[in-house]
Hints:
2 domains; 12 helices; alpha+beta; single chain; 5 strands; five-stranded antiparallel β-sheet; elongated
Amino acid sequence: MERYMKKQKITVTGIEVKYYEKEDITFISLTDIARKFNANTDVVIQNWLRTADTLDYLGLWETMYNPNFNEEAFKEFRIQAGSGGFFLSPKQWIEKTGALGMESSTGRGGGTYAHRDIALEFCSSLSAAFRLYMVKEFQRLKEDEAERKGLTWNVYRLMAKANYLVHTEAVRENKVPMIDWHTKKEAIHQASEADLINMVVFGCTAKQWRAMNPELKGNIRDHASALELLVLANMEILNTKLLEDKMDKQARFVHLQATAAHQLSLLANAPAIKRLEERVRGSRGEDG
């Protein structure tokens, strides 16, 4: 286990339980869980590990998720399970079988951690009620996280909408005769400039997108990724400046298209953007 991996805490029935995320997988402290029931946490964990039911569960879990699981070593442990002289520590289990579902270290910040599936099985062996409270607390955390992720996407969407007001004003003042302000004639100009931005960011107009996605609610920008919304907001500001500079539409399109393509390519590989996109997909319930 990486001892200095950033750990977080949850409180379950008054007990602080540490956990950390490793490659988007939650590992929970068995040591903290055991402490609720006995100050001698090593004994609690070892007594759990030595039973046949526990080894059957761990063996099945590792067989499902660990292609390098040492089944021969597992079988040796399983034969001895439950016998009076049988002793098994987390460290022995990990080293002998190559287990991935459990991690253990000693010293400051150490302890035994297990994949969430295994940690909940450990809880069940100690207290069904405690397991239920643990599940409830992690569910609350996931819901809070999803809400925060959705909020991040909403910030980009609101930013794009705010920029749109600046953009529409620039279109009005630079493309629309004053006599046509706030009329259907202005709306034609505004739609044309909005589609100019849509074309350089999404590669299609709002009407074309709607024809391709008749089953979706909302508009093209409501279904944009966080990256696309970020670049879209940048293009609205850039187009505002180009309008003020009196650049003709074709020249603006060429300039905006090149800039948008560069930004989309550059930012797509930025770690911060990748993490954001993953979070947004998770909050929307989409596959990666």
